[in-house]
Amino acid sequence: MVMRFGRRVSAGEWRVSVCEEIRSLARKVELLAPAGRWDALAAVLDAGADAVYLGAKQFNMRRHRRDFNFGDSQLADAVALAHERGARAYVVVNAMLGETELPPVRGLLRRLAEIEADAVIVQDLAVLRLARELSPGLSLHASTMMNVHHPEHALALKSLGISRIIASRDIDIRTIGEIGRLADIEVECFIHGDMCAVQSGQCGMSGLLFGKSANRGECMKPCRWAYELVRLHDARAGEVIRKGHLLAIKDLCLIHRIPQLVQAGICSLKIEGRMRDAAYLGGLVGAYRRVIDAFYERPHAFQPETDAIEDVFRMQVRRLSTLALGGGVSHRDHFDITGDREPLFLSDGCAEPGMDRQALPPAEDAAPAVRCGGKAELAVAVADAASAVAAIDAGADRVYFATEIPQYECAGWTVEEFAATLREARARGVKVGIQTPRITTDREWAETCRLLERVASLGPDHVLVHHPGTLRLAREVCPEAMLIADFGMNVLNSAAAGLLAELGAGQVTVSNEAGFADLCALASATTVPLEILAHGPLTGMLTEHCLIALYLSPEGRKDVCRGPCRRAAFGLRDARGQLRPIIADRHCRNHVLTGHDLAILPAMERFLLPTVRSMRIEGRFYRAAHVRAVTRAYRLRLDHLSGHTGEDRGNGRAGAALPGIHGQDARATAWLSAWAEACRSSPRPLNFGPYVRSLIQSRSTATVMRELLTS
After folding, report:
1. Dist CA 246 CA 332 (whole Å)
2. Computed from CA positions of residues 427, 474, 521, 360, in that sequence, does the dihedral angle turn out positive or negative?
3. Which of 134, 186, 465, 600 is the most buried (most CB within 10 A)?
4. CB 225, CB 562: distance < 8 Å
5. What is the mean pLDDT of residues 483-489?
6. pLDDT (tens digit per residue) in 184-239
7. Which helix (H) or strand (E) holds 425?
8. Architecture of domain 370-538+598-692
9. Whole-angstrom Cα distance, residue 106 to residue 120?
């Protein structure tokens, strides 16, 4: 036995691995460059790019400016130019899609097949399904927004027709290479440019606050704001720990890591920057071209060319780092809290309105065919057995035991407690399930496999999953359970919901960024049963980095942290004074919450759409007493609506006598009182969250910026 990558392998395994690395040196890696305009396209081709990626005017992740990206005829000419120069052309159709966008996406996919684009880069599962139906010859690459971080995730996407995955930005080079080898799939990774501090595809803050989604190329960059990290006392800000641009991550630079990237078997090295100008991109691509060529010419005596390195540093926008891809764990050096090299601030904070300043849009504006009158079960996600019992006692129809649970004031739950709760729940006609984590790197994957194997014999009623890899795992291990595709799947359209149903999902949770109009459009178009988030804290950002460890511990890194998150609560306060709690989960990831918790109870009847089969209270970050109070209020309100005669209907705007209620009468006394109690015990103020806006009909960036400046 020999040691390799920190584990013991047989001599045979070692020889195979070495042979793979030798072959990687004989198979030249692709240098992939961005192009947002025609002059940038010409510049990167002149500089030696092997492939380019570019976008149409719609459905891509760079949509703040209309003068970037390519029109229909320009797109055809751009692909033709790349082919004339011996380069490949990949077109991004990598935005999260709404229902009304499916017809034009169909047309775009047909057009890309006609102009012989070499591949389409996708995020939304709808594009996978539509491409398979309309243009089966198109090669499909999974965007980094799909957050592929484990071989089983890659294998699941491969079975759906994906030929290449663009790996998560929060795993290292070795792990990326291992995904490609174990899944036998092409892998691509970023090597330079602007990165995000939040897990790919799991940043909802901009969408929740402004209706401009980071998953649709419209992010207002709340991760670049100036913040104060504060210790919380009874949900109020106390001691200030650190000030600065605490989430402002540095730019990625892997020019010194070309040998490791090649030897890992990564097939394509990607430079970020479709909003950058031609001079910048041409110089950057040229520098990486020289370094890559030099390595292949003399790998035994390779040294990066000094002039190339100087060119890279001369052109840097923000300060540079190898970040997670370089193998370093999350630590303070990944961030530049000064903010002095930030090129553009689209916003600088947001004071969140209360429910009394919000109103839901008319359902008729979104989908005239949708009518209320459906029936929905009440589901509650919990972090411990005490909360599960509280939810059952208060009238929940379903209880989900969560695995992403806080470290502060939470003991978690055991399989034995799950089994006992399951027995009690079944005796009372309540269903019980497991909510798996959003991120499943090696540790979480092994834990999830073990957990599902242990509970499979108990017969859980539901298993909730956040990506196609865990969906396939749950289908195999718990075949009798109803599988629920959870909100991490970012579903906003019927094609994506339909594909998940084909893969075995019995129900789909709508994206936690969905506006009410977006929900109505989806509900009117799909027959797949839907679940919606009805109440609770909303995670705006899910970060691999632990801000508490970074800025509170002397070492500034989470792998040598003493665990202050277990002894106190913390939050971020922005420049407008809005406080947003930070929840450190048991994997030391941070859930940065919005400042207000979601609550739809004052307008619940409007959400009783025919395909909405369950409404969820996200109680994972609540104590048992509050879980009980909220569940009771929603139970009484649902029961009241089930016998509704038409009076006392909420209009989606809060009243004064009791929070969020108009038209009180004696018949409604029970649920009104319960709702008042739930409001009083809430750890944060309440509002309608994302439902007051539409992601698909978002306002322009300039409009939002003007409103922020004048507010």
Report:
1. 9
2. positive
3. 465
4. no
5. 98
6. 999 999 999 999 999 999 999 999 999 999 999 999 999 999 999 999 988 788 89
7. helix 415-427
8. Alpha-Beta Barrel (3.20)
9. 13
28-195+249-334 CATH choice from 2.40.37.10, 3.40.50.300, 3.40.50.20, 3.20.20.70: 3.20.20.70
pLDDT of amino acid 530 = 98
Distances (CA, A) of 517 to 32, 131, 367, 398, 536: 38, 26, 7, 26, 20
Closest CA to 566 of 405, 410, 384: 410
- Distance CA(94)–CA(109), nearest Å, equals 12
Q: What does the pLDDT average to over 78-95? A: 97
pLDDT value of position 330: 82
| Distance between CA atoms of residues 430 and 392, nearest Å | 7
Nearest to 382 by CA among 405, 401, 369, 355: 401
The reported pTM is 0.92
Pair 645, 625: CB distance under 8 Å: no
Is the distance from CB of 249 to CB of 315 less than 8 angstroms?
Answer: no
User: CA nearest 340: which of 244, 275, 198, 272?
Assistant: 244
Residues 390-403 have pLDDT tens digits of 999 999 999 999 99
Half-sphere exposure of 678 (CA within 13 A, CB side): 32
The amino acid that residue 336 corresponds to is D
**Long-range contacts, stretch 558-565, CB < 8 angstroms, 24+ apart:** 558/329, 558/330, 558/331, 558/588, 559/329, 559/330, 561/588, 563/407, 565/407, 565/408
In the chain, where the domains are located = 28-195+249-334, 370-538+598-692
Angle between helices 125-134 and 494-502 (to 10 degrees): 80
Residue 425 CA to residue 431 CA, distance in Å, equals 6
- pLDDT tens digit sequence for 146-176: 999 999 999 999 999 999 999 999 999 999 9
Place of tokens 């002059």: 39
Sheet strand arrangement including 236-244: 236-244, 227-233, 569-574, 579-584, 590-593, 539-543
Specify whether the backbone of 556 is left (phi greater than 0), alpha (psi in -120 to 50) or beta: left
User: Looking at 317-436, which runs of residues are DSSP E strands?
Assistant: 320-321, 377-382, 398-402, 431-435
Residue 624, amino acid:
A
Tokens of 536: 């609770």
Strands, DSSP E only, in 176-247? 186-193, 227-233, 236-244
pLDDT in tens, 600-611: 999 999 999 999
> Are the beta carbons of 462 and 486 closer than 8 angstroms?
no
Compute the residue count for the chain: 711
CB distance 320 to 653 below 8 Å: no
Rounded CA separation 350/346 (Å): 12
